[in-house]
Amino acid sequence: MMYSDRRASLSARSAALATSALTLLSVAAAHAEEAAAPVIDTGDTAWVLTASALVLMMTLPGLALFYGGLVRAKNILNVLMQCMLSAGIIGVLWILVGYSLAFGTGNAWIGDFSKAALNGVTIDSVTANFATPPRNIPEYVFIMFQAMFAIITPALILGAIAERMRFSVWCAFITIWFLVVYCPIAHMVWASEGWIFKAGAIDFAGGLVVHMSSGFSAIVAAVLLGKRHGFGRDPMPPHSLPLCLVGAGLLWTGWFGFNAGSALSASPLATLAFLNTSTAASMAVVVWAAIEWLHRGKPTALGGATAAVAGLVAITPACGNVAPMGAIWIGAGVSVISYCACTFLKPAFGYDDSLDVFGVHALGGAWGALASGIFATTLGAGNETNAAQIMVQLKGIVFVMIFAPIATLAILGILKVIFGSLRVDDEIEVGGLDLGEHSESAYGFAGGSVFEGELGHGKGSHAMSIVQRESHA
After folding, report:
1. Helical residues (DSSP H) of 341-441, grouped into ranges
2. How far apart are CA 361 and CA 395, in angstroms?
3. Which of 4, 98, 227, 341 is deepest in the core (most CB within 10 A)?
4. Contact call for residues 452 and 473 (beta carbons, < 8 A)
């Protein structure tokens, strides 16, 4: 009996020890798991959240006002709506498939659908940034930051086709162009599997991905659509240079988020990009004004606004890899290139690039991408000399300037078959796309007169009439 009791006591003690051991192991495992969990840097996260908002401000209202001030008064609402729908359409597509196609695991050309609808991405998912050493930010904020880039890129194209493309065609075009052109180029340049990324190309904030892709696509769209009625014969001055300059100022401010935010960290790298961004824009304004002074006799407000944007475009790919003196040379160079393109190249070839997207974004972006290799103080992975870096940059430049236009030509060709015409009817173009496409007018007129859209006969067009309000003493 005593033996049985002793045996039972030993069994109970063994069970208790086993339970204690399991408890200790569980606690240790929990602590180990907690210790291994990625640590989020709150300062970096706060900066990237702020940068995302700044980049959205570049489209709405920055680009909208910049482009809106440059068109005629009868078309400003159409431009603003094109920017607004870019934010809407691309904002949704980015979550559904765009992020996955750009940054999902795939091949050298495009991502897969592994992250479609943000599959597998949770509030605990992280992305490593470019601090030294790398720190973590939530993947959600990285997704949002990149969404802002995706939104502004197709919106840049509208400057080349302003005042004549049907709004329905525009919505269909940016939907397809985003999927066929933007997402693959973003993957090739910025995703670890992309061939341009693996080659060690420098594109810190989007010279290839944003400006060259949109700029070279824009010239194809402008030529395919044809010239505006009266182009080269009737005056088509900007209807509001103040709006244009306000838009340029907002773009300049937002560009700090665009470029410095691409470090994904509140770090020395971000400060370098921040400094280079403003330095290049400042130099571009000074050089452009000097050129206009010599060539035209007077510097213009339009030239100043255009120069600032050109300088910002050119420094975008290089801002994290060049010294401030390199930024000065890049800003000076882009003013010469873009001024010559807008002043001499455009009249020589006679194309109607309404708001000079080709001269500023395509050629300015190409110069910036090339200058990234020329003036780089930090080379891309695998490149040991600036000469080697330049050759890598040229490969990326040539690819984008061939791929983007060919894809754009195919997209617009298909849309022409589907819609019958890419352009609005002649009467709508003459009367203005604000009334013809949106049944609205941006401005009233002196004496209390307002435009009123009346449903016309045939094809649902809008005839424009002036209704004089009666004035009472």
Report:
1. 346-349, 357, 363-374, 386-419, 426-431, 433-438
2. 18
3. 98
4. no
How far, in whole angstroms, is CA 121 from its chain's centroid?
Answer: 23
CA nearest 357: which of 371, 346, 370, 368? 346
Inter-residue contact 180 to 407 (CB < 8 Å): yes
Distances in Å between the Cα of 409 and the Cα atoms of 63, 158, 415, 418, 429 are 24, 15, 10, 14, 23
The pTM for the full model equals 0.88
- List the pLDDT tens digit at each of the 473 positions of the chain: 444 454 555 455 555 544 554 454 455 444 544 456 789 999 999 999 999 999 999 999 999 999 999 999 999 999 999 999 999 999 999 999 999 999 999 999 999 999 999 999 999 999 999 999 999 999 999 999 999 999 999 999 999 999 999 999 999 999 999 999 999 999 999 999 999 999 999 999 999 999 999 999 999 999 999 999 999 999 999 999 999 999 999 999 999 999 999 999 999 999 999 999 999 999 999 999 999 999 999 999 999 999 999 999 999 999 999 999 999 999 999 999 999 999 999 999 999 999 999 999 999 999 999 999 999 999 999 999 999 999 999 999 999 999 999 999 999 999 999 999 999 999 999 999 999 999 999 997 543 334 444 334 334 333 333 333 333 32
Residues contacting residue 99 through CB under 8 Å, at least 6 positions apart: 115, 118, 143, 146, 147
Contact assessment for residue 284 and residue 248, using Cβ atoms and an 8 Å cutoff = no
- Cβ atoms of 97 and 106 closer than 8 Å: no
